[in-house]
Amino acid sequence: MEYCGGAMSKPKFIYQLMIRCAPELEDEFNKWYNEVHMPLVMKGGMLKAANRYKVTDAIQTDMPTFTTICEFESREIFEKWLASNELAVAKVDREKTMGGKDVVWTSRAFYEPMIHFGE
Description:
This protein has 3 helices and 4 strands.
């Protein structure tokens, strides 16, 4: 594996989730996601960092409204997190809070690092 960039930083393993949300639910969804869901899934310290993004109108796309990119140090830690009580609690809360609403987790994928460019 090669690493390019000034700091020779090692890229993380990432877990990407894409979420489609009805426009009229965005405020409610974002408040819950930011204030309840992410703190629940980050308990225990296995998930090192997460970034959320909202699709823009800069280009025409049919991609889901939101994506979250979660960073893990290794595949083993990710697999441990998948089986964790913290994630189980977050899933129960997600179903209780967002179940039946027009909010859909459309895709999930886990990526291993290949190469880092830049800083």
